[in-house]
């Protein structure tokens, strides 16, 4: 459940306006990954994109506007949760995607998360993107229930399970800044599945407590 970078091949065609957006957002991504939020400027983006700075100011107004559109573009990319045939496999694959996005150099995902702490606009957009990604990933739990991998007496809270499965990867790489552990994606997934099977994430069907 990553924050994928905007990809020009995934964007909708749309003439000059779309081309300018592509150039500018690709420039924002590059500037952000290389220099972080502190080095992101409207002038730098315009220069890298080969677009007049007046155009950038007119359409995006400020750095916050650039970040919001960049996050929005990430949400436009066609992304599907893994489907490996088992809940453990799906969560492992998801964790590996996350680990890869956090360890690539430079890491756009890490830079974008850091930038969201400096812009209220970007923080709101980032929260919405995460909400959308969690909603997409609920299908992993739905498939597991249909396969009989999870208890059916009570509903499994998909979001809590997903958080438990992916949190160790974020904790290790973002908070602790530790060396990536190639075995962590599967260990974290396995632990979350065991907890889910034991009912740790179950809630009554009416949603009450």
Automatic annotation (TrEMBL):
Repeat in keyword set: no
Highest taxon, organism lineage: Bacteria
DNA-binding region: 41-60
Start and end residues of each HTH tetR-type domain: 18-78
Keyword Transcription regulation: yes
Keywords from the named record: DNA-binding, Transcription, Transcription regulation
A Pfam cross-reference name: TetR_N
InterPro entries xrefs: Homeodomain-like_sf, HTH-type_TetR-like_transc_reg, HTH_TetR, Tet_transcr_reg_TetR-rel_C_sf, TetR_C
Protein name (database record): TetR/AcrR family transcriptional regulator
The organism of origin for this protein: Streptodolium elevatio
